[in-house]
């Protein structure tokens, strides 16, 4: 049985809706678990009671998301600490952000891979060529 469903059935919560359970129900669930009730979805970590405050805390373990890698992250071709990007406006260099996405390869300028990166102009009317160089 799910923990929230059990709490609703026993009158501790009003509904089995979305969202987190209030902290006030954790001691109730812990007591039910000690009395033999098992929940399919609780606890999602280690339940401890603070000796100083008396509060019950659930400490969650690190996520296992690294085991489900869909695609490796692209390497930083142009790290922000080492490179700057600018566009030329009337012969002057106007600094832009490496966080912008290249319109040609659709990747952030930090990791883009095309030879002539362009980004959306400041006024939003088209694209402008930008230049990346070392600081």
Main attributes of the structure:
two-stranded antiparallel ribbon, single chain, 135 residues, 4-stranded antiparallel β-sheet
Number of DSSP helical runs: 2
Total number of domains:
2
Unreliable parts: none
In terms of structural class, how would the helical and strand content be classed?
A: alpha+beta
Rg for CA atoms? 27 Å
**How large is the share of residues in beta strands?**
15-25%
Sheet with most strands: strand arrangement: 4-3-6-5
| Broad shape | elongated
Oligomer: single chain
Mean pLDDT: 82
Helix content: 10-25%
Quantity of strands, as a count:
6
Topology:
Elements: H1 3-9, H2 26-34, E1 46-49, E2 56-59, E3 83-89, E4 92-96, E5 118-120, E6 127-134
Antiparallel strand pairs: 1-2, 3-4, 3-6, 5-6
Describe the structure.
By secondary structure, the protein is an alpha+beta fold. The protein has two domains: 3-62, no CATH class; 83-134, no CATH class. The protein has two helices and six strands; from the N terminus they run ααββββββ. The strands form two sheets. The protein has a four-stranded antiparallel beta sheet, with no helix packed on it. A two-stranded antiparallel ribbon has the order 1-2. The longest helix has 9 residues, at 26-34. It is elongated and about 75 Å long.
């Amino acid at each position: 049985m799910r923990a929230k469903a059990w709490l609703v059935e026993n009158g501790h919560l009003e509904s089995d809706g979305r969202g987190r359970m209030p902290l006030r129900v954790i001691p109730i669930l812990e007591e039910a678990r000690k009395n033999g009730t098992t929940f399919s979805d609780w606890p999602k970590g280690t339940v401890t009671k603070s000796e100083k405050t008396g509060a019950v805390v659930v400490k969650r373990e690190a996520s296992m998301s690294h085991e489900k890698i869909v695609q490796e992250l692209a390497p930083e071709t142009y790290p922000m600490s080492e490179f700057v990007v600018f566009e030329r406006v009337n012969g002057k260099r106007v600094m832009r952000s490496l966080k912008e996405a290249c319109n040609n390869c659709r990747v952030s300028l930090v990791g883009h891979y095309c030879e002539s990166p362009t980004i959306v102009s400041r006024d939003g009317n088209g694209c402008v060529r930008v230049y990346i160089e070392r600081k």
